[in-house]
Amino acid sequence: MIESPCRGGQTWQLITRIKPRSRRVSLKIISADKVVLVRPVFLAQEVLNEFLTKNQLWICQQLAKWQKKKRIIVKQEEYLSQKKEFADLLCGRVIFFGSKINLLPKKIKVNFGRTRWGSCSAKKTLNFNFRLSKLPKELIDYVVIHEICHLAEFNHSKKFWLLVKSFLPDYQAKRRLLKEYY
Questions:
Q1: Of 20, 141, 150, 161, which cross-links 120 as Cys (Cβ 3.0–4.6 Å)?
Q2: 115 and 91 part of one domain
Q3: 177 falls in which pLDDT band (50, 70, 90)?
Q4: What mean pLDDT is predicted for residues 50-68?
């Protein structure tokens, strides 16, 4: 644990990941108290210390943003007992929205992930995080629509966002709301 001078001495954990193919040092905030530092194999400790010192303000600002987010905690037992029910709800929403533009996935999966709300694979499988079940219905619909649109546009191009907007004219507000949760 590292003492953080910018947050009243509150501690945060620094997780260091050594990546042989990495050519530079990078930081990623993964929760309200965890920072991941990705680094190449051969790098002097002094360089890392200097990098952390130089980025201290940024780290503190990002951790402060995470503090404001609403954390969704789901226990494994809850996931196992409610997964089928939530998958059924998602199937209904996917069919409802997907049939409007004649785009339906080959498969729908519900997982117990930690980082993404949803994803779309090249095999036309839509994956959804079970934690979505704890969000307001309007945000579930936003994620469903977002992933369905990836069936047509497998990127985040202007064309993709126009397709999302055709379903949800206020998608940007939903997107901002979704960022309040983790």
A1: 150
A2: yes
A3: very high
A4: 88
Q: Provide the residue range defining the domain that includes 42.
A: 2-68
Q: How confident is the model at residue 2 (pLDDT cuts 50, 70, 90)?
A: low
Alpha-carbon gap, residue 111 to 60, rounded angstroms: 31
Judged by phi (left if over 0) then psi (alpha if -120 to 50, else beta), residue 38 lies in beta
SS3 148: helix
Q: What is the mean pLDDT of residues 65-74?
A: 83
Q: What is the pLDDT of residue 7?
A: 57
Q: Mark whether 48 and 89 lie in a shared domain.
A: no
Same domain, 80 and 168: yes
Same domain, 110 and 159: yes
For residue range 35-58, what is the model confidence (pLDDT) as tens digits?
Answer: 999 999 988 999 999 999 999 889
Calculate the dihedral angle through the C-alpha atoms of 27, 113, 130, 12, rounding to the nearest 10 degrees. -40
147 and 105 in a single domain? The answer is: yes
Which pLDDT does position 62 carry in this prediction?
Answer: 87
CB contact burial 24-37 (16+ within 10 A = b; e otherwise):
ebebebeebbebeb
Same domain, 63 and 82: no
Backbone angles phi, psi at 169, to 5 degrees: -55, -30
CB 26 within 8 A of CB 38: yes
CA distance 117 to 32: 18
Do residue 86 and residue 130 come from a single domain?
A: yes
